Amino acid sequence: METRTYAVVGSTGNCGTALIENLWKRDNSIIHAYCRNRAKLLQKLPFTQGSKRVAIFEGGIDDVPLMVQCVTGCRAIFLVVSTNDNIPGCSLGQDTAKSLITALCDIKDEITTNPNQNGSTGTLLPKIVLLSSSTLDDHLSRHLPPTLRRLLVRAASHVYNDLAETEKLLRAEKDWLTSLYAMPGALSVDIQRDHAISLTDHDGPLSYLDLAAAMIEAVDDEAGQAVTMAQTSTREIQAATLQRFIEGWASWTPEGFLDSWSDNCTQQNLPFCQNSPVKTRETVVLFFPILMSILTNFKLKVHNIVHESETGKAAIYAQTTADSPWGPYQNEYALFLWFDKTGEKVQNIEELFDTIVMDTFLPKIQACTNEIMAKKKRAAASGTNPAVATETAVVNSTVGELPPT
C-alpha cells in the first residue's frame, strides 16, 4: 500500500487533533504536525510522542523555512488554524496562508530547478484543504434563517472576515496551487458517527472527527472543488436501507431480498390473532428459492411509504403480481419494518396481506413445495439425505407463513 504524507497546520485545535486521530488509524499515513506548542500537542495526543509516523514541527506561523520542511513531500496540507476570539484585525488565517504560499513557492522553484529531487508522492505540489464555514456561502446557507445567519456573522465578524480573506489569497493562486474549501455547518465535540460530502448542501451539526474524515476523503479524491461536509443523518441512513429493502424485494432474488436484513432479522404475518410463528432469516433463506421457482415474472408496485426515523420504523403499502402454475397471482398488503440501531439493516418485519388471496394460493403453494422437496429426496444418492430432510421439515413448518410476496 502506498505511503502518503499529510501536513496538519494548526494541529493542536479541535479539527487538527481530529485529523491526526483519523490519519493515525490508517497504517499507510505519515503525519507532519505543525504547531506553536509541542507540549500542548503531546498532552492532547500522547500517542504522537516518539512515533515514527508522526513528525512534529514546532514554530510560529511566520517561520517559512520550518514550514517548507513540514510540507515538502506531502500529498496534502490541512490548513486548520483557528481562534474563538473575535478580535478586530484578526488575521491568523491570512498570515498562515501567506507563509504557506511562500513556502510552496520555494518548493515549486526547487522542483523546477531540480525536478528529480522534489520528494513528492505523485504530484508536484500538495493540495491545500482550508477549513472554512458554510456560513460564508450564500448557497450553502440558503436554508439558514436570515436573522440567525446575520447574528452568527455579527458575533464572529472578524473571524469570518479573516476566513473570507484567506480564501481570496488561496483562490488568487489557483493557476498553480490546488485548494479545497471545507465548509461545514455547526461543529461539535462528539464521537465519530458518519459523514457525507456534497457540493451543494449540509445537514445538521457535525462532529470534528466526522469533519476530519470527510476532509481526508475529499483530499484523496483527484477532483479539487469546494465541498461542504455534513454528518449523515439517521433519517438518511434509514431511508437508504428502506430503498435497498424495496429494490431487493423487487429484484426477486435471494441475495437482493435478504441484502438489507440483519443476521437476527425476524418476520411475522399479521393479524396477531392468527398466532403465526415468528420466522428467522435462516428459515427464509431455505424457503425463498422455492417460492421464487413457483412465482415467476414477479412485479412489485409500491403505493405508499411512511418513514418515522425518530422511532426507527417504516410502513409500505404495495401490490405484487406474478405468474404461477395456477394462473395469475396478485396480492395486496401492508408491510411494517423496524430498523436496527445503526439504521443500516432491517431487524423486524410484520406483514398484513390479503387473506382471501392467500387462502386460495397457500394450499397450492404448500402442495407444490412438498412436491419439490419430494423430488429432492428422490434425487439423493441413497435413502433420505439428512440435509434435505431438515430443509423439508423447516419448509413444511413455515409454508403458509410466506415472506413478502
TrEMBL record:
Gene3D superfamilies reported in the protein's UniProt record: 3.10.450.50, NAD(P)-binding Rossmann-like Domain
> Which SUPFAM superfamilies does the UniProt entry name for this protein?
NAD(P)-binding Rossmann-fold domains, NTF2-like
Enumerate the PANTHER family for this protein.
AUSTINOID BIOSYNTHESIS CLUSTERS PROTEIN F-RELATED, AUSTINOL SYNTHESIS PROTEIN F-RELATED
Protein name, entry field: NAD-dependent epimerase
Q: Which organism is it from?
A: Grosmannia clavigera (strain kw1407 / UAMH 11150) (Blue stain fungus)
